[in-house]
Structure formats: structure tokens, C-alpha cells
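DATA SHEET
Item: assembly model
Revision: 1
Owner: S.N.
Input lines:
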Amino acid sequence: MRGNLQAFFKTIIVQMKLSIARPMFQFVIWVSPFFYATITYFVYGGQSPERIFQYVVLGSGFMGLWTSIVYSSATDINRERYYGTLENIFVAPVSFAYIIMGKIVGNTIWGFISMLLSFIYLRFVFNLEYPIVEPLLIGLALLIVVIAISVFAFVMALVFTLSKQAEVLMNFIEYPIFLICGFLFPIAILPTCLQPLSAILPPTWAINLLRVVTNDASTTAQILQAFLILLATTLIYVGISVVVYMAVDRKARMDGKLGVY
Amino acid sequence: MESWGCINVESIKRFFRHAVLSYKALFGWLDPKSYILVMLLNPLTQMIFFAMLVNFVYGGKGLEGYVASNALLLCVMSSVFGMMTVVMSDRGMGTLPIVMASPVNKGVLFFARSIPHIVNGVFTAFLGLVFGVLIFGVSISLDALLPLLGIWMVSIFSACGLGLILGACSFWTPSMHLLSNILASALLLLSGANYSLSVMPSWLSDFAKFFPLTRGVELTKAIVNEGDATQFVRLMSEEFILGCIYFAISIVAIRYAEYLARVKGTMEMS
């Protein structure tokens, strides 16, 4: 267990260094937040400060976070396959799950850095006013959001492990999640047939939690409800990830095609 | 050799044959699933996302124009990422030095490879428009279709010219994903597809005029929303000249990039 944890933390550091060495990831972390924030601000420019904070600041920040997941965590397994190192990691004495989770957490930390950059940019370039929030509350909310997003990315990474079309899928899943999870508008305006899909995706509840805890008008009951929904969704995804992990592990060993690119 | 006066028919046939073959090789008609996901569904989800956003924020005002403008923006996949692969894919497959050492005119060669991306860009944009009309229930007059075809062809030609300048960079830099994504995002930002250019700071809207698609988007909105085509000739002339300048620069850039690649030994770098 201690060895696994040590590998987990070391993987976070190594992954953060490896990810940011890639030009595409550099774009995702250092450049894309400014484009997302500017475009969203131009669209929402004439709206109320509350709406601008909810959809421009949080929404564009979350777009940056999600893009960092799409172009890193979702396809890191495929990248290892391309490098020819996937089988080595898979059969190493340290659990494969700890390595993958370490990679995902490392990438998610970068995602939050890009989100932070977006917040700073909008605050100082467009002089946006941010609400004063309880530090402990927002800290706890961010921690749960990190866990929720990481668990969701873990499930995606496992599913992508079995696909030979991971790179194609990577390019496809960015905007559908922006759309379905309501990053820039409420999910209530989506067609009715899409709303159940929104409800089963953790990013929907993650951004909802941040919106609720940063809204002055939110009641304690609403805040508690937002926390509970995200926690419950995350727990369900933890269960799904265990099942998918076991299935991937079994299939990889039976087929012996893990490294086939 | 078959010829019409001074025109060599075989050269023209070779031009188009090369265009079709290179396109097939680049975008894998052998795997339609990849083509559909990357070149059709991905841009369409982008269009739906932005159309839903502006519909929510502006309360449906001018939605037809925004849907059509976002449909035009779908050409970015062809004009930036497609044009980038015009050079990059050869390097990835190790055939770039052979292509560059061949006696053919490189300007004609790369222009031939651009043609399918212009056609594909127009196709994707019109497909986006059809989806936009069906999903959002907006009505676009049939009279507007022909002017739109002209506007979009010229705009996409211009965008492909800029894309080819970017493609030239791939001779000496491995950071093409960084550059191509910056250009694609810049086109989204500067075109004004999702807002009026008047919301931008004046220096930014002036800067936007040096980029393709800005005039195309302005004219698309004017024609679709108001049926106003009075600016058609002026804006499209400017856009066409801009496109010609981009292609001229791209030919010089390819030659210079080729020279740099030979000096630095980076032609096969991946």
C-alpha cells in the first residue's frame, strides 16, 4: 500500500512535467483559457454581474479544465501505447490503477491552474467583480470537484484503453461535454431528451456545485443538496470505475492486445 | 501530348488527380468512421454549442445569422487543421524529402492539395447550415443560398491561404498543434461569429480585418438577417484579395521554410 501511494505521488509529479512538455498541452493550459474567457465575455458582455460570474468566469474556467482532461487524461493510456510502454506499466508491481490515477490527478492539477489563469485574466483585464465566498466552503467544493472530475476522467481513460480510435474520440468529446453539461448556459434550455444525459455526468454537478457555493442567494439546503448530488454521482462513478477496471484488466490479459496500436 | 493551345491538359488532369489522391490519403476515406467523427460530427457539435449559447444569451434575436455564421466557422477544421496536414502528413510518413526533391512546382503542388480542403470546407459549412436550420427551426430564404455559396467559397479560399502559411511552419517546427490551435481559436474569436464586432475593443476589431472569415461572417449575417447584399462586392473583393495575398505569402513561406529545413536539417523532424 505504501509503495502504491509513493508511486501515485511520484506519478503526479512526473506526469505534470511530461504533460506540460507537449506543445498541445501547453496550448490547452497557457493559451486556451484566454480565448475561452474572451469569447465568452464578448457574448455575455451586456449581462448582469451575477450572470457573468456564473457563466463567463466559472463556465469558461470549466471549459479550460475539461479541455485539459480531454487532451491529457483521456488519452494518456493511448499515448503510453504509442510509446510502447503500456505493457510495462500494466505488469509493473505497482498497481496500474494507481499509476493511471496519478497521471489523471497530475493533469487535473494543470487543469485547475488553467482555470485559475482564466479567473485572474477576467478579473484584471475585464475588471470583473467576484463574489466574496467562504474560504472553507469553496476549498471543500474545489476538493470534491477535483475528485469528481478525476474519477470521471479515470473511467474515460479506461474505456479509451480498449479503443483503437482513442485519438479520434479525443477530438470528438470536447464540445459535446461543453454542451450537455451546461458550462455556459443552464441545462434547462437543452432539449428534454438530452437532459437525462446531463444528469448522469459528473461535470454537470461539479459546475453546479461551484455556482451554488459562489451564489450569495443560495440557501444552506441548496448548498448541501449540491454537495450531496456531486458526492453521490462521484461514488457511483467510483463503482463504475472498479467494474470497468476489472473488465479492462481481464480483457487485456485474455486478448494480449494491450500494446497493439 | 493533349493540349488546348497553350494549356497542357495532362498538367491540369495531374493537378486534380494529385488533389484527390492527397486528400484521400490524408483523411482516410479508408476509415469513414474517423472522417465522420473528426470532420463532420466534431464541427457540428461546436456549431450546435455556440448556436445554443447565443440563442440563450440574446433570446433568439438574430439567431438565423448566428447559426449561418457558426456554420461558416466549421470550415476551420478544413482550412486550418486540414491545410496543416498538407505538409505534416508527408513528414509523418517520411515522404516529405522525396516530395521536396521532386522536380514539380511546389507552389502548384501545395495549391492542388488545398483544393479539396476548400471544397470540403464549403461542404461542411453547408451541412452545418442544414443541421442548424433543422435543429433550431430557423428559416433561411432560398434567395440567400446562392450569395452564401459565393461568400463562403471566397472566405474559405482565404482561410485556406492562411492555413497554408501555417502549414509552411511545419517544415521547421514540431509545435504545429500549438500553432494550429492558436490560429483556429483566433479565427473563432476575431470572426465575430457569436457577437457583433462592435463589442470588441476597436484595436481588436481593426486587427480582425486582417484575418479571413471576418468579412464572410459580417456579410453572412447581413444577408441572412436583413437580406442586405449591398456590401457584397466590396467585402468579397477584399476577402478574395486577402486570400490571394495569403496564398502568395504561403508560396514564399514554403520556399523559405524549405531552405530553413535544408540548412537546419529539420525536414524529417517529427
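QC remark: The mean pLDDT of chain B is 85.
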